[in-house]
Sequence to fold (192 residues):
Amino acid sequence: MNWWNATLKAGGAGERIPMKKQMKELQRINGVGDVLARRLVEAGLGTFDKIVAAGEEGLKKIKGIPPRGLQGILDQAAALADEETGGRAVRVAKLRGAVSTLKGEVEGIAKSVRDRFGEELAGKSGRKIEKDILKLLSSLEKVEGKLETRVKRAGKGLAKAEKRLAGLADAGLKGVGKGLRKSRKALKRVIS
Fold:
């Protein structure tokens, strides 16, 4: 097995991370260079969580780790593991807030459209707008369900959707419909 293009399974998430990427991450720990990072990954300790779980006894088995540096490596790995999980949780919480804000914006747009175009909404165009609003709200619900697994993609999609919704409160009936469809399209990548 060539170490430069091998992939190893990451801790518990079921995702596969290339060995080079794992090695680069491990090099964030002071005292861990190319060689030691490769040895750690080959030993199955490719994430900070796994290093912490292995403890001193597990790290003593790895050739090249100085005995005096064991505790420092463990402490740094623990701090970096906490940073990774805590950072993701914060981003997910912010994205949940963004989803609820967008839902409020869509509801505000619906009220604005109802007030401004009361008579025009009785026809076919009104039904289309209503359908677009319901589809967009449904898409936002689906995005909210995918936030845990698609943080980065959800962030991008929500930002695009927010941008598309920005001027719809003042737009005409056709502009509102077009903006709602574009917002929903921005969210489709997150859902699929």
Observations:
- Residues 87 and 163 are 25 Å apart (CA to CA).
- Helices lie at 19-26, 34-42, 48-60, 70-116, 124-146, 151-165, 173-191.
